[in-house]
Amino acid sequence: MALVKAQFAPGIDKQTTTYGAEGRWIDSKNVRFRTGLPEKIGGWEKVVTNKKIAGVVRASTAWVSLSGVRHLALGTDRKLYVYVEGVFYDITPIRLEAALTGPFAMTSGSPIVTVTHNNHGAGLGDFVTFDSFSTAQGLDMNNEFEVTEVVDTNNYKVTHTSNASGTASSQGGTGNAKYQITVGTARSTFGFGWGTGVWNAGTWNTPRTTSSVTLEATYWSLDTFGEDLLAIRSNDALYRWDLSGGTGTRAQKISQAPGTNRALLVSSPDRHIFLFGTETTIGNGGTQDNLFLRFSSQEDFNTWAPANTNSAGSFRIQDGSKIVAAKRSRGSILVWTDTALHALNNIGPPFIFGLNQIGANCGAISANCVADVNGVTFWMSQTAFYQFDGAIKKLDCTVQDFVFDDINATANGQVSIGVNTDFNEVTWFYASEGSNSLDRSVTYNYLENVWFTNSGFVRTSWVDRGVYPEPYGTLYDSTSVPNNNTILGVTAGCTTLYRHETGSNDDGSAMDCQITSGDFDIEEGDEVFLCSRVIPDFKDQVGTTDIKIEFANYPASTNTRSFTSTTSPTTKFFSVRGRGRQANVKVSSDAVDSNWRFGTVRLDIRPDGAR
């Protein structure tokens, strides 16, 4: 008998065959690599128990007020929230306020209420809050409602939680209606119907049934201006939430700023506010240019028109079809279009900033796919991953084909990124082909230069630890109804906020984690070997872990022999009767509080002929 040790390099390799990946791992779930060894990732739990917010979060940012209070802004396709010391507050901007008289009509025994308001401008799913109205047919209408049906330009319907006691119209007396900004879309989709595509591509006056036009999912761009929050929802106005007004106030539109923009960023330390994909004529939304950018006068969010008396200015980028993302890094502001990378640098008066293209064919895939780690920037493009540390480098990725050959290009705009500096990780969350929502992730350990993938673990936004002691991530559930706010008639689709790297469980439940190796030769040559014992090697094992070892004679063998054993920290070895030329190993666990870090296995073998 002889002991043979199976050696595995760190990282997941999906670029080759199962046998070609000898000495590598080929698949993983909820496992990371640290100092060369695979281990179960850290657990997560809800930040606020049983509290969910409306919509899918597409951006989040954390900061500390001048008084030392921590804040977390969360922008969803439906609302804008700020989380402060255990409570979510709705700070969604108001687009219209109106005084109404007798606007409600209801039918006895029905919770459906028709609201009359000429030129209301509300769309399906929008939110409206009524106040100061009298009780109408037993219904208190002084609540926030979701618009559940738009009848016409002058009427819409909402749904109460109670039934009306009578049938009547012109009810409620006089009160106020406050309409929040129109809701966006939770997912990217193809555009269909009349007017889609180029002219003369089909029969006149018929809707298109195929399309190459993508309607972007709604996203937010968030940044801080001192202790205040600046926010832009995609292709919308610039809003400011004045922290000094308290959590009971909403974000307000900055009326002097361009009203249609793709993204924003505040420069540091000079504090110019940049608006990307903005209007060439301020206040005229029809002049929005997806490649045009403006910056305000220094420390002044109200001054945008360039003049000799201010430091405002503008540029137009030439390469690409739209500005996609922007990030502060290495004393510059990096700006990505869908095809190229540019840098904005403060060069002083009279031009204030200079714009230089520093790379082509390396555009960003989404507004939130870029991260900066200690002056090194990482991003996901349409076909590869990149790094910028003074020079652009295409990252050598051992899972590249797996990611980009099975990605839903329609959902590219939904890709989000998370940085976990304690483990030197950058993670991209994306949608696989056939899924219209995020369902996979790929992680790069930039210190050890290894890649690994994960199925099922997704977050629509992420904030690294810093303001908070652990990373915070958001998870969207399209089937669950939000319960953080008292919104009557609210429909499904909500987000839960989690803290990560705490414990070893999935919010109190068992976490399913596993890692599988490629096939390895038991010994060189054509001889078949018999294995009688497997000796596992774990570090810091808690609870039980399953080890499966599979034997085969050839890479294409279907007549394989596998053995699975449940090991504990006291397990010295387990017996098998495996026969073959090659083998692979799978390590997994799905028990509450289990934890492990895997080293290797040794096989007790002897020759068994070549039959």
Amino- and carboxy-terminal Cα gap: 20 Å
Count the beta strands. 52
- Shape verdict: globular
**Proportion in β-strands:** over 45%
Work out the helicity level: under 10%
Task: Give me the secondary-structure category.
Answer: mainly beta
Helices and strands in order, then pairings?
Elements: E1 2-6, E2 25-29, E3 31-34, E4 37-40, E5 44-46, E6 53-54, E7 57-64, E8 70-76, E9 80-84, E10 87-90, E11 94-101, E12 104-106, E13 112-116, E14 127-131, E15 144-152, E16 155-159, E17 168-171, E18 174-180, E19 189-190, E20 214-215, E21 220-225, E22 228-233, E23 238-241, E24 252-253, E25 263-266, E26 273-276, E27 292-295, E28 313-316, E29 323-329, E30 332-337, E31 340-348, E32 352-360, E33 370-373, E34 376-380, E35 385-388, E36 392-394, H1 400-404, E37 416-420, E38 425-430, E39 440-445, E40 450-455, E41 461-463, E42 472-477, E43 487-488, E44 494-500, E45 513-517, E46 520-521, E47 529-542, E48 545-552, E49 561-567, E50 574-580, E51 582-589, E52 595-607
Parallel strand pairs: 15-43
Antiparallel strand pairs: 1-52, 2-45, 3-4, 5-44, 6-44, 7-8, 8-9, 9-10, 11-18, 12-13, 12-17, 13-16, 14-15, 14-18, 15-16, 19-20, 21-22, 22-23, 23-24, 25-26, 26-27, 27-28, 29-30, 30-31, 31-32, 33-34, 34-35, 35-36, 37-38, 38-39, 39-40, 41-42, 42-44, 45-51, 46-51, 47-50, 47-52, 48-49, 48-51
